[in-house]
Design a protein that fits this description.
Elements lengths: L7 E4 L5 E4 L4 H13 L3 H13 L7 E4 L6 H4 L6 H4 L2 H21 L1 E7 L2 E8 L11 E5 L17
Antiparallel strand pairs: 1-2, 3-4, 4-5, 5-6
Length: 158
């Protein structure tokens, strides 16, 4: 008995082979459909920048900044006066700040965008809600320390 979907061998670019059988075709097709709908972090930042700054997509450049962490944009936070006055509470507050900073650095990636005479840093991550949206969530960062520099050249797209 022949199957409507015969066994097929697929050769990948890296020279490896994968055998697609009637049993493996559905997971493979689902994975391909899912991946086809995914949007890169840079593409999400580009669309966010374009929308926020009324700048055509073709005039926007983006790049992921692996050298930057979200905690670099958050600056030094000061505890409330009543917490600062109590050594036990101050230690607890400092520990919480360190933990939150570490989690933020692990969960968010900094992306840089420029175009139409504007320059913005975004924090981006995949949303955690299971809403099926494959786009990254990108939010602009207004507190950019002077120690962080953007593109080295001044030839930003107009």
């Amino acid at each position: 008995m022949s199957h409507p979907f015969p066994t097929v061998r697929v050769r990948f670019v890296n020279e490896s082979w994968y055998t697609v059988t009637p049993m493996t075709r559905w997971p493979l097709l689902i994975a391909l459909v899912f991946l086809a709908g995914c949007e890169s972090m840079e593409e999400s930042a580009k669309k966010t920048f374009s929308h926020d700054n009324t700048c055509p997509l073709g005039r926007v450049e983006t790049r992921v900044r692996k050298d930057l962490k979200l905690s670099m944009f958050q600056g030094n936070m000061t505890p409330p006066a009543d917490v600062a006055a109590d050594p036990g509470r101050l230690k607890m507050w400092q520990d919480q700040q360190a933990k939150n900073s570490s989690e933020d650095d692990d969960n968010w990636t900094i992306t840089e965008a420029r175009g139409c005479d504007k320059h913005v840093f975004y924090k981006c991550k995949l949303p955690q809600g299971g809403n099926g949206d494959p786009r990254y969530l990108c939010m602009s960062q207004s507190n950019v320390p002077k120690t962080i520099s953007g593109w080295p050249d001044a030839t930003a797209p107009k």
